[in-house]
Protein 1
Amino acid sequence: MGKRDFLSANDLTRTECQALLDTAIRMKSGDYSDRPLAGQTLALIFAKSSTRTRVSFEVGARQLGASALFLSTNDIQLGRGEPIRDTARVLSRYVDGIMIRTFAQQDVEELAQYADIPIINGLTDLLHPCQLLADLLTVQEAFGTLDGRVVAWIGDGNNMANSWIEAAGLFGFELRLACPEGYQPNRAIYEANARRTRLLITKDPGEAVAGAHVVNTDVWASMGQESEAEARRQAFAGYCIDDALLAGAASDAIVLHCLPAHRGEEITEAVLEGPRSRVWDEAENRLHAQKALMAMLMGNR
Ligand code: CP
Ligand code: NVA
């Protein structure tokens, strides 16, 4: 039987992604006691820090009957230069699936190419598709559907922004991104999806947020960009989600942030802790979305 990977949102069809979200909702409701991963092991390779991704995959794997193996690249030979393709073939002989968080998307693709078990992208510099699933689940819970929603992205055109562009293309909703010059999303991803749905890139956060149902942001300096933090603070001045910006959104708009957040930079304390914020549900939804993903890729193999 062939294996399936989840390296980007485009590894799912719209129908599959919707089915995954529906499964996640069922899992969250408690109406799910299957153990489709019984007896399996999921390896979790981390070259960057994590709270939500690590814990949601570890706990989720256990709830589905699997064990999880945390592998920091500080400890495994990959971190000392053992090739990805060798790591892929060796781990394929021990475990039943691998989630990897690293820098280059190409490394995740190489892992998938050489492994004969499912590979899950737990964040690269380019994409964060697992977080996207949790975000889509949060929007579906808030509005019942993704259809007809208008989504605004404020700030860095980073891995989360790129994943949201892929989601807009997949589901066909309108996405408006407000990013400063020089910090726009990946051009190839933008162009591919601009042919599939309504995408707007602007420098004006107010234009992006006008009437939007979902207002979403992320840190200005992602993991690996720590040395750019000060330059980025200057470039992103004015790209903070605050109450004044939110006043232009739809009256029932929700605010998302994948976390960790930098209060006072990309989002104010008042918005993060305020009535429109869905960030804690969004964080919880990592667990349900990741479980539905593991069940889809690894279930009953
Ligand atoms: N949102 C997210 O991926 O969080 P972690 O970095 O804590 O995994
Ligand atoms: N864009 C952030 C997301 C963290 C979950 C980063 O890559 O650090």
Protein 2
Amino acid sequence: MSDPSIDISTSPLVLKFGGTSVRDAGAMRRVVAIVAGEIALGRSAPGPRAPMVVVTSACAGVTDMLLECARGCGGERPEEALALVATLRERHLGILHDLDPDDDHEGRADLRTMLDEIERLVRGVAMLGELTPRTTDLFASYGERLSSLLLTAAFRAAGFRAALADSREFIITDDTFIRAAPLMAEIDRRAHRMVDPLMAEHDVVVAQGFIGSTIDGITTTIGRGGGDYSGALIGAALGAREIQIWTDVSGILTADPRLVPNARVVPEVTFTEARELAYFGAKVIHPDTILPAVARNIPVVIRNSMAPADPGTRIMPDGTPIPSGIHSITMKKGMTALKLSPRDPRDGSAPVERALSLFAEHGVPLYCGLLAESRGLAITQSSAFNDILLAAVESTCRVTVDEEIALLCMTGAALHDVPAALSEPLAALDGITVALVAAGTSEHIMLIGVPESRANEALSAVHRRLFEEVTV
Ligand code: ADP
Ligand code: ASP
Ligand code: MG
């Protein structure tokens, strides 16, 4: 399979595979076939072949299990934690056996060593009786470290020269464990140094998403679902020609397919639209993913590892002409709405303005803040809202709290030029109380707040109106 014409001065292709795309041996073989297809495509094109860099997530469900394991041993339930390690051992060794029944001694030994490390970690934490965020990150990191070992074995079993890179050597972050912030300048400095020699000698380099390390070498993670972000960070640092995010749906859909079975693929969105869509709840892509790609103008494509022939969704640089109108609807449940008014009407809008500014001061994200005359409305995530912030807001103005709001977010392009973007969704909500409407803050989004109890119904009704009956 060796091909001396790989040219590392050519921009690599970075392919990130999510948990379901590497869930078992069959899924891993599909990954190998997808990469083989890209290599064949590159071969048929004139000129030297571009290197392939694969960024993998943990096998589906494994990060959750590792975090459960961490909580188990930290919370005096070491037997449960050890039982989870046994399940992880069986699953990962089973996948390796399935991939390479003729035995890959090296891979098996590495896998066993790593699983033994997890077991020792469980015992150590159980003995101390204390789980720190730093140790939680160490636990979580094993998911990607295990799956990347397996994926490397899958490539090797198929005859590819595959190298395993440890992302912690070049994805350098701060020490905000559990949600560490990547340090781009340091990543830029290290990525080429670590990955270039591997690319030069191999058909494919496999690295882990989600994990990194501090400058002192302490393992960190960059937030749940952060594998997409890692793919983009690695792609940006290596100057990729394209970043492909392979998942279990054929791209960004007009709505979450689990809630709206008739959802269909959106062929193209811009960077800003994708970011806003992710921020307002579309799990298909991590919101921070777009930033490194934007900084280097690298196109991002979302594709389906179960249907690799589907073209997917292309996320294009802002300014690329794409059809105007609503492209998709996302929904964010678990929101709290605060209606704000001055205690004394003679105070004007100052108390409400002050109340709106308190969210940032308390580190609580404000999803939407409106001020009209002297009254205001603030929407935040219920899980982030807290009594200290409420007391602060109450000390400035009168507050009514509604804890059961869901936000529907219509995302698209040039929405301010499409009057129906506002009227059609509202018309579809006939009979459902509208708690808020916000449009005009961006040409890409329009928000409608509805009672959480009717959120799914509202989403289906708006989707039907926009995508199943009328085209906006
Ligand atoms: P991965 O493990 O590959 O990172 P995720 O589970 O994080 O995959 O994201 C893919 C899932 O996102 C899909 O299976 C789908 O259920 C969900 N999803 C939510 N909203 C959307 C949307 N608008 N378009 C596509 N998928 C969506
Ligand atoms: N494995 C990590 C998670 O489950 C990161 C990812 O898959 O994107 O959150
Ligand atoms: Mg994901």
